[in-house]
Structures are given as C-alpha cells and as structure tokens.
Amino acid sequence: MNTFIAVVLVCANAIPIEGCSDDKASEVRKVRVANELGCTNGWQEIIARTDLRDEVGKTSYLKTECRRVKRAE
Asked: What CA dihedral angle connects 63, 30, 38 and 47, to 10 degrees?
C-alpha cells in the first residue's frame, strides 16, 4: 500500500520553478498524508503562522509536491 509525503518548498524568486528543489529551497516542510488530496490541504494555514508569510509573494514563492512512498508490507 502507498502513502504520500506532502512537501512545500519555499524558494527565492530568482530560482526558476523547475529549479526549486529540496537542496535549493530556503525552507522545506514535509508531512506524511494518507492520500494525494492530503497533499493539497492545509499549507496556507501552516505558512500563515510562520515568519515566511511576509516574504511569500514578494521575495519568495511556494512550490508544493506530492511524493509517493511505498510502505513495507
């Protein structure tokens, strides 16, 4: 059975979207979720509670990814 890791990358505006990755992001947030829909929910609230909220849209942007992880059976 598969689970998913929801990932939010915070990248500087100077980094192209296709170049925004774990190693180039200024911040990486990850959480295990039950399904792909879980990857799309809640990130606005999480970021809004941090100091990052003031920079997103001005000097940085968010990139979200949903990564499939196979669980050992």
From this structure: -60
Which residues lie across from 45 on neighbouring strands?
A: none
60-70: strand order across its sheet: 27-33, 2-12, 60-70
> Whole-prediction pTM value?
0.81
Q: What is the pLDDT of residue 17?
A: 95
Q: What does the pLDDT look like over 33-47, one tens digit per residue?
A: 888 998 888 777 777
Residue-level length of the chain: 73
Name the residue with tokens 């979200």.
64
Residue 40 has a CB neighbour count (10 Å cut-off) of 11
